[in-house]
Amino acid sequence: MEKPRLINRFVQPMRGLLHRFAYFGLIAAAFGLMIFGKVDALLMDRVRVHVVDAVAPILDALSRPAAAVDNAIVAGREFARIHEENATLRTEVEKLRQWESAARHLENENESLKTLLGWAPPPEAIFVTARVIADTGGTFVHSMIVGAGARDGVKKGLVVMTGEGLAGRIASVGNHSARLLLLTDLNSRIPAIVERTRTRAILVGDNTDRPRLVYLSDGGAVTASDRIVTSGHGGVFPPGLPIGVVISVAENGVLVKPFVERARLEFVRVVDFGLEGILEGSPPPRVEPAVRRRAARKEAAKPDEGTGR
User: Do 245 and 228 meet the contact criterion of CB atoms below 8 Å apart?
Assistant: First the structure.
């Protein structure tokens, strides 16, 4: 116990002296090295090289953590910049998607409106362009709602056209909308004619996409690919409106593929040709002379009730 105490008593004053004179000692050593370097420069260079070689591994080891920290700081800043750019790009992409959606909508609308230019109404006709706003049809009804009504001049019985051809007629009218009865509806009856042979018939809807031709005037002079147009009889539809083409001639009937497809209806023209027709309470259609003669012959062929002959 005595020796440690004696050592401590001796070491503590020496430590105090070293701390007190260390600064002056370092200054004196620096001056000494400078003087020694002036005296023998070659020796000092060799000493400096050996000292640097000895200290280089220590400096390299000490510099690695600092370089790693610098790299980490640079990587963090780069990550923050990339994150900010990513957020900006996401916002721009979302805006571009909205613009793309609007552009596609306008493109489709433009294409639909362009199809209406495929058929030009005569100068005396008055028409209203309307959008199909609802499809109220189903298995048993083929009709649609158009966004034009009585305030736009739409009346019951007016012809509805597209750029491809006849779509149907107006069945009922409200102030702001109207119901379009398609030519494929079960209640649709359209006087038609085969454009090639001028054979008259009636186009009858049956709630399918392929209406039928019935009551052919000459017994069926129709072949596949014949064009069917309106005949103008009855005063409801003007003559020559394109309806469709014949796709099948069989015993069960003549099937017609309409030019206007129900699934593609978006914009239509409601056309007023100035025809009263049977829908507006006009006088009954004129009976053909041939029909009158056949009726007269049948009446003359009946036996006289008085004579029994």
Answer: yes
